Amino acid sequence: MNAGVTAFDVFGNGIPDQTGVGEDLGLRFFFMDDKVTVKLNRYENQLENQITNPLRDSAAVGIGLARENGRTQDFLDAMRFNGLDSQITGALNFEDYTGNGLWTDVQNTASEGYELEVTANLTRNWQFLLNVSKQDTNVNETFITFKPWYEQFVAPVAGDASIRALPADPEDNPDETIGDIIDDIDRKVLFHEAQVGGQLLRSNEWSWNFVTTYNFQQEESWLKGVRTGAA
């Protein structure tokens, strides 16, 4: 799947296309003279470069990265304010990005799911479909494009006490230091890293769908030709 020309990473590069492999196994059963069909499916999927938006984390994290006033831009501004431009050579500012300026990221996931589907034509007029599925999606790797940015620009100074103690923006927040910004970025990265090997957040494990229709085509009344339904 193409990521689109408007999706790019923190380096300003285009997001790589999503790729994946899947395996499906299904059984189908027929009952009541084929009026009822039951399908059971099991599937496994592995996706690489699945887009994950760093702005869509839980409110509990509350740390923005991919925006004009995000912590990545705050870090760059603070480094430049303190004359440390050489430490961040090559890092893009928010205004350097194309489009709306928001960058995104990708992750690799593995899914395993089970699906039950029942289709019934109980009468000439009435049909319904019921679908119930359970899917477990685990994260194998996340923040794939941001981690190299972190290693290139943040990691080299993260353990330097003299740099961490420098003021970030004395005018807007005189008490904040570069170390405070780095700590926020670390919390964001760790929040995503903690998902590796576990269930993908913002995903529904269970889902179901019910659709029913009634066709008056076979009835000799003023309703003939009318079909109604609900989902």
Give an overview of the whole structure.
- The chain is α+β, with helices and mostly antiparallel strands.
- The chain contains 4 helices and 8 strands, in the order ββαββααββαββ.
- The strands form 2 sheets. It has a 6-stranded antiparallel β-sheet with strand order 1-2-3-4-7-8, with no helix packed on it. Strands 5-6 form a two-stranded antiparallel ribbon.
- α1 runs antiparallel to α4.
- The mean pLDDT is 87.
Task: Spell out the blueprint of helices and strands.
Elements: E1 19-31, E2 36-52, H1 71-81, E3 105-120, E4 126-141, H2 146-158, H3 161-164, E5 167-169, E6 173-177, H4 178-193, E7 206-215, E8 227-230
Antiparallel strand pairs: 1-2, 2-3, 3-4, 4-7, 5-6, 7-8
Q: What is the approximate shape?
A: elongated
User: Can you give the mean pLDDT?
Assistant: 87
Order of helices and strands: EEHEEHHEEHEE
Helix content: 10-25%
- Count the E strands: 8
Radius of gyration: 26 Å
The major sheet is characterized as: 6 strands, antiparallel
Q: What low-confidence regions span 5 or more consecutive residues with pLDDT below 50?
A: none
Name the assembly state: single chain
Tally of alpha and pi helices:
4
Helix and strand content put the structural class at: alpha+beta
How far apart are the first and last residues' alpha carbons, in Å? 29 Å
Going across the biggest sheet, name each strand in turn.
1-2-3-4-7-8
Short description, anyone?
The chain has 231 residues and is an alpha+beta fold. It has four helices and eight strands.
What attributes does this structure have?
231 residues; 4 helices; 8 strands; 19% helix; elongated
